[in-house]
Each structure stands twice: as structure tokens, then as C-alpha cells.
Amino acid sequence: MNLKKTPGLDLKKSFLTLLFKWRGSLYKLCYRELACFLVLFCAVSLIYRQALDGDQKSFFEKIVRYCEKYLNMVPLSFILGFYVTTVATRWWQQCLALPWPDRIMLSIAMYIPGCDNESKLLRKTLLQYCNLMAVLVFRTISEAVKFRLNTLEDVVNAGFMTKAEMECFKAVKADCNLFWLPGLWFCHRLREAQVQGRVIDPFGAQLIMRELLEFRSRCGLLWVYDWVTIPLVYTQVVTLSTYSFVFACLIGRQNIDNGNKDIPIDVYFPVWTVLQILFYLGLLKVAENMIHPLGEDDEDFNLSFLLNRNVKVINVGTHAFTSDMCPPMEGDHLQTDQPGIHTPHTSHKTSHQLKNRIFKPKLPGLYTANKEKAELNNKQPEQTIPTISMGVLNASSYSLDLALLPGEPNYQGKAFSWNL
To answer: Using only C-alpha atoms, what is the Rg of the chain?
Structure first.
């Protein structure tokens, strides 16, 4: 459960709060397997205590000792840890590979200016081609997006593609994934804009193309992650090892009459065994959910939200990045008579902490054999940190008392100088 997704969550009490979460929790992932284990464990225990005679109990106790002896022969913690690390690394790399149109939008706004309708239309069309590439590749790799945008007509109805673009896309017959085709349309429109002189700098077209190739590389990387998965043998080894351990615990963790003498009580409920199985199964379920983060699980990537967000950013960015929407420059905060820019105190606790934040030496006398010399060093006055004012050209330095900030009562240091 992501803490940032839950509004009003008190992070100071997050450990207690997370124990009662259900969505994406450990209980939701493991409650079926854990319930089956407890039912079977109780059934085996009742059969041993009530249904078996003396000879049968003796034979069953031998089986229990055998299972308990060889229960930890398989290094399950190592296998699970390495597998989860591999899956988590792959999951995070897919998260970093998600395409965002922000960089290419800023590059287009820089090198294709203009407040007229044609310039705005050109910028918006180029960015929509980039977003269309992401839509087409998301339809291939994500079940949620595929369910939402099952056909190209659904893509047109959602506003990600025009009817003319759909006809051009269908006209291309190929046996491969054509998610990169809007990139060719992007190159054609950019070349037309460069011929018409709408790109103000020749280097600007090169920079825009570089950002386009980066955007296309991210889309292609997501498609490769969906194409090449973790080997099936590795997943089978981890799954079989985990469930074999759970099955062995059904017998090996039973409390028998002639069992371990160090445990004088008769344990009917295997508390520590349940916790151990819960942790092992939790790691396995985490890996199963993270191995394909583009599905419909609780913690999978919400690609529909990402596509809607990109559309809003494109609509706002193509109209807001103009000269008439840019705020004027003001130099009031750079006046020389002001003490400087600092965060105001909002609570008594913060102010009290800042007043007590004094740099004091903590190590004098630590390695000194003479105790009197150590006490003498501890009586030295408080140190101050020499800092350099903003007037770097004058190379003037002074000592700044960290007990109080500039502008506070009883401040003994010098005011900041903002002379550039």
C-alpha cells in the first residue's frame, strides 16, 4: 500500500495503521493458502490425538521427526530473496520506462514558438502523435487498457486518434506491431515545420528528434519487457520450494507426545509456524504480483490514469507556453536591504528546535587519556561556522551564529548580503 495514495494518513502511526489495511495487503494475498493450511493442520492434529492407537502414534511420530529434520534442507529464504530481488528490479525498471511527454513538450515549446492558431495546432499535433504511440503500445501490453480501448474505433471515440489517422494506420499492412507509426507522422510534420521556418533554430529540430527517439525507446522497452519474461523454470523452482515447505510443515511442525522436551507446553496452535509461512507466502505473492505490473492487480501501474494525465498536460502545455501566459519578472525578493529568504516558523516546536540547534563539539576528550584535559576541552566556547556572504566578488567572510536566524530577536550575527 502506497502511503502517498492514502489522504490523511498519519505517518507517525503508519505501522499500526498499515496492519488494518486490506487493499494490496498481506492478508488479502495469503488468506486462502493460510486458511487451508490451518484447516489441514488441525485435522492432522485431531487424527493424531484422537484416532490413532499406540503403534500408529509411534509410526506417525517417526514421520514427524523425519519431516522436521529435513525441513530446512532447501535454502528457501535464499531462493525467495534472490527471486524477489530480481522481480523487484525488473518491476522498478518498467516503472522508469513509462513514457512521459513533458520533456518533448518543453523542447517543442522552446523551438516552435508562436501564439497563432496554426502554431498551437502544430505543437498539439506533434504531442498527440507521441501520446498515440504510448496508447498503441499500452493496448498491447496492458489488460486494463486493452479492455478500455479494445479496437481502434474505441481509441478514436476516446479522443486519442482522429478518424483520418485511423484510416492511415489501417492502410499499412504489416505482420508486426505498428505502435511506432505515429512517430513517422511526427517526423513528417516536423520536417514541414522546419521547411516553413517555424523551427527557430536548426539545432532545435535535432533536439526535438532526440526527445522523440527517447520517447519511442521507452515505449519499445515496455514492449520488450512484455515480450521477454522471467524464465518459467525459475518461477517453478521458487513456487515448488515454497509450497513444499508449507506441505512439510503440516507434518513436521506437529506437537507429539515424545517430542522436544525443551517445550513443556502442548501447542495446539502453531503461532511461529504460521508467521513463518505467512512471510514466505507473502514474498512469493509479492513476486507474483510484481512480475507483471501492467495488469489489474491492486498495486499494478494505472496506465489509464497516465494516459488521461498526458492528454491534460498536452492540452494545457500547448496553450500555456506562450508569451502572453508567462508571468512578469519581479526583483522585490532580491533587494539588498532584506535579511534574506528563509522559511517562516509555523509552530512553537519548530522555533524551539531551531533555538537549540547549536553546533557543539561532541568528540573532544574521547581519545584523551588525561581526564582533566578532556574536561578543559569541554569548557571551550561554542564554535561557529564561518560562511561566505552572497557578495562573492568581495570575498568577505563572517561568522554566523546558528542559535538564531537573521531577523529574530537577540540575533548577534551579521545580516546576509545579497550584493551580486
So the answer is: 33
Count of CB atoms situated within 10 Å of the CB of 151: 10
Q: How far apart are CA 44 and CA 37, in angstroms?
A: 11
Residue given cell 494545457 in the structure block: 316
Residue 102 vs residues 107, 157, 191, 220: alpha-carbon distances, Å: 9, 24, 21, 18
Element (H, E) at 187: helix 181-195
Q: Does 367 score more than 50 pLDDT?
A: no
CA neighbours closer than 13 Å in the CB half-sphere of residue 214: 14
- CA–CA distance, 63 with 42 (Å, rounded to integer): 17
Please tell me the predicted confidence (pLDDT) of residue 2. Answer: 47
Q: Which amino acid is at 145?
A: V
Would you say 333 and 390 are in contact if contact means Cβ atoms under 8 Å apart?
no
C-alpha dihedral over 145, 150, 154, 158, to 10 degrees?
A: 0
- Torsion of the alpha carbons at 209, 211, 212 and 213, rounded to the nearest 10: 90
Contact between 378 and 364 under an 8 Å Cβ cutoff? The reply is yes
71-88 per-position pLDDT tens digit: 878 888 899 999 999 999
Identify the band that residue 383 occupies on the pLDDT scale cut at 50, 70 and 90: very low
Dig out the grid coordinates for 62 from the structure: 517417526
d(CA 374, CA 365): 4
Q: Which DSSP state fits 385? A: E
CA distance 334 to 108: 32
CA distance 248 to 40: 12
